[in-house]
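Please review this pair:
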Amino acid sequence: MKYIIVGLGNFGGHLAKRLTSYGHEVIGIDASEDKVEAVKDKITHAIAMDATDIHAVRNLPCKEADAVIIAIGEDFGASIMVTALFKQLQIKRLISRSINKVHETVIQAIGVDEILHPEEDSAERMAKSLQMKGVIDSLDVSDNYNIIEVKAPQRYIGLTIAETKIRQDYNINILTLIKMEEKPNIFGVKSKSKKVTGVVTAETKIEEGDILLLFGHIKDIQEILSLED
């Protein structure tokens, strides 16, 4: 998969290196030549450029990128400008780092697909979730077991938990279902928030748009994610 990461500070640099180590193609961008120099031998491509310059950004392979991550962590204005610029380019998946609550509200209003928070472990979790098909977030329970949020595969839509036979076939448990609800923010722009449905039963039906919270061995999770709908 291909990713563009704008901002190569502690968070962005760590995320870029981890994704590259997982075998993905990563283009890292920063206005600081020192930050570019620090990661250039550890990621696919590192470019020193001003990401607020629309003409420079248009030369990037944006349409081929599976996601663009705005990881700028200090410059409030630059982060908003860059996020808005990439939003205009109709990126497949636009993810932006939150600097503070006000900044988060603004980038929500711009219409990013996902918002990241600046803890370093978020970069580790993000790298793991990006490399697995359909995964929204992940949590390591131990070296071998994970809890993950994954978009419900099309083959399970309309089935009950029992009918999916996930536990029998893959030794994976569905802990709960998460549904996305649209609520207006302070600007009146609708944004999505998660609503956990609670404890599921064998008769709970999976609906279009549901997110499954799965628990299991990493190899079993990777197996089920590798299947095509």
